[in-house]
Amino acid sequence: MKKILIADDEKNMIWAMKKALKDETYKIITAEDGAEAVSLVQDEEPDIVLLDLRMPKMDGMEALAEIKKINPKIPVIMLTAHGTMESAIEAMKLGAVDYISKPFDLEELKIVIQKALNIGNMQEQIAFLTEELSKSTGKMIIGESIKIKNVLQLVSRVANSNATVLITGESGTGKELIANAIHFNSQRKGKPYIKVNCGALPEGLLESELFGHEKGAFTGAISRKPGRFELADGGTLFLDEVGELTPSIQVKLLRVLQEKEFERVGGTETLKVDVRIVTATNRNLGEMVSKETFREDLFYRLNVIPIELPSLRERKEDIPMLVEYFTEKYCRESGRDKLVFDKDAMDALVNYQWKGNIRELENVIERIVILNQGETVGKEALPKEIVFYSNESTPFILPAEGIDLDSVEKSLIEQALIRTENNQTHAAKLLGITRHTLMYRMEKHNLR
Known about the structure:
five-stranded parallel β-sheet
């Protein structure tokens, strides 16, 4: 039962709200001034607060500030009188989730309360999800961007269902981490959690790994072996790189999804399993279906709940937080003092395109922690490809005063050679010219 604190110095208003909410299975507690409201938040830990703006002893704005110190996540709805709209907006800036103007319709009040409770529930679920995932796997989902929060909200809604989930996104975006979050926040979290990389095994071995085999089923099968589906019974089976499945394995997987049964390789006994399937891929399965390299019926079975992870370049605002997290992690592991990235270095990291996403960023930070000698990381300490990266889609704009073309050409050749560690073939490719043309221009500019 949700507990609601109503703070208002008008007794008639409190009576009306209590009467309106009596059939909503809420527990109602009341306060007649702001100071009492703050005290009750501390003692009673309500799920939501309805706070009048004008009250004796401590007004609503002061009470809001104190309540947010006690519990920053508690939803607070401001009750405002006519002509106090500016104060209501200021309260929203201080952390109130909504406001409602007096006199208000009691049905409207119920809707506003339910909306605020939903916000509070979602915040609790995301916090719990992140904490539990960290405890279960030793890893955290880092980020405050809208895109990553949307993903976490979706995970919190689907975790307790038995629906099949398809996680898509570029390599290195954290698909396995999301799969972990789904399992460890589901009703199956106490049951087996089995992972299979479908792209790491040849077809014959993968079939045996998934479905098991009987003794003598093939050369080397010296005993019966249970497959991953058997091992995951009652729990979750995570199939990574599911786009790499061959047509014959796709057929067998489809049968398990439809019938929840299979036979071991070389066996005749039909086995029944209760397994939740979570899959991931960096490939476009819809496009593969159109090219007839992936079964359409299997795609629809896997794609019941799609979760698409954003690339790192789509959530650049999370990069400083990720940099800090990985820096602290590797400083702690290596026993060295904390490193700080200066503004130029951080700007370069934020503006880089990160084709390898979070995995690439983590590797770069680990390398810097190991190699950097001082306590501050400057731009010069970053890998050359980050230092010299520029957005290729931005056209070069000729300055009004003109340029020295020979100097620009020489500078670009020098940058290409530095970036490729003097590999002329690779440098020429970066510049869009042949190696012979590069050698000619190097000689022209006295570059060796």
